[in-house]
Task: inverse folding
C-alpha cells in the first residue's frame, strides 16, 4: 500500500522540506479587506507582518480551505496512492480538520485518514514530517497513525504573546485587560488543552517568560531522552536563534529547529510572539 501525506499551511513546513519528504500542502486563507491570500503561496510571513503594521484597520480575517480543494487533491492523489494521511491544525480552533474528513467521504479509490494534531505550527509539522518519513519507508497508513498517536503522548508546546493589544483587537481579550496587562508588562503563556488555546501562566516581562519556556522544556530534557524541539517566532528571528543556541548548549540531548508563526496563526497571536514545542524522539 502506498500512502501520501498532506498537511495544511499552518504547519509552516518550509517548501524545501515539503519537497524533500513529498508532503502535499493545502493552504488556509488570510483576508485583508477585499483581498484574500493563500498563506505560504501568495503571502509570506514577512510580508504579512509588514502589511499588518502598515494597516490601521481591523485585523485581517482567516478562513479554512474550501472542501473542493481537498476533493481535488485527494482525487489527484488517488491516481498514484492507495491511502492519504492528512495532518491538520487543532479542530478546536479551525474547521480545517473537519473539512478533510468531509472531503475524504466524498472521494473513491483512496482511503483518507484525517489526523487532528490538536495543536498547530511546526509542532503540527512534526507529525506530518514523521508520517512522510514512515510513508516513504512503506509503512501502512494504520501503522503511521499509531506512531502519530504515540508521539502525541510526549508532545508539548507553549506560546508567549508579546502584544496584548493584538489579542484585544482580535476580540480575544477585553480592552481593560489589555490596558492593565500592558501597564504591568504581562506576557501570557498559552498552551493547548482539549484542542483549544487557553492561558497557562501570566508572567511579568518578556525575559522571564522566555526563561519560563526553557524551564518547562528542562523538566523533560533532564530525563535524558533525545528530544526534538522547535523555537517558533513571529518576526523575531534573532531572538529565536539566541534561544535555540541557549537550549542546545544547556541540553545536549535536545535538537532545535527554528520555525515561525505564519499569517493565519500570526493574525491571532501578533508580531513578537515566541513559542517552544517539543516531543521525545
Result:
Amino acid at each position: 500500500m502506498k500512502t501520501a501525506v498532506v498537511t495544511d499551511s499552518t504547519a509552516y513546513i518550509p517548501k524545501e522540506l515539503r519537497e524533500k519528504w513529498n508532503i502535499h500542502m493545502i493552504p488556509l486563507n488570510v483576508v485583508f479587506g477585499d483581498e484574500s491570500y493563500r498563506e505560504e503561496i501568495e503571502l509570506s510571513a514577512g510580508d504579512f507582518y509588514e502589511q499588518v503594521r502598515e494597516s490601521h484597520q481591523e485585523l485581517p480575517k482567516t478562513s479554512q480551505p474550501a472542501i473542493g480543494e481537498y476533493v481535488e487533491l485527494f482525487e489527484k492523489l488517488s491516481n498514484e496512492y492507495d491511502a492519504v494521511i492528512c495532518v491538520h491544525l487543532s479542530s478546536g480552533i479551525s474547521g480545517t480538520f473537519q473539512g478533510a474528513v468531509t472531503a475524504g467521504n466524498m472521494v473513491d479509490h483512496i482511503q483518507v485518514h484525517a489526523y487532528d494534531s490538536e495543536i498547530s505550527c511546526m509542532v503540527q509539522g512534526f507529525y506530518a514530517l514523521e508520517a512522510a518519513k514512515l510513508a516513504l519507508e512503506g509503512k501502512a497508513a494504520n501503522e503511521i497513525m499509531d506512531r502519530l498517536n504515540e508521539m502525541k503522548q510526549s508532545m508539548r508546546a507553549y506560546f508567549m504573546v508579546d502584544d496584548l493589544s493584538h489579542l484585544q483587537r482580535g476580540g480575544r481579550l477585553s480592552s481593560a485587560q489589555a490596558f492593565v496587562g500592558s501597564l504591568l508588562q504581562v506576557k501570557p503563556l498559552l498552551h493547548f488543552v482539549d484542542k483549544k488555546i487557553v492561558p497557562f501562566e501570566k508572567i511579568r516581562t518578556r525575559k522571564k517568560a522566555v526563561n519560563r519556556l526553557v524551564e518547562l522544556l528542562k523538566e523533560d530534557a533532564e530525563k535524558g531522552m533525545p528530544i526534538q524541539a522547535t523555537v517558533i517566532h513571529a518576526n523575531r528571528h534573532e531572538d529565536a536563534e539566541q534561544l535555540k543556541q541557549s537550549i542546545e548548549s544547556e541540553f545536549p540531548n535536545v535538537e532545535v529547529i527554528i520555525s515561525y508563526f505564519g499569517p493565519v496563526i500570526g493574525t491571532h497571536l501578533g508580531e513578537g510572539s515566541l513559542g517552544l514545542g517539543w516531543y521525545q524522539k
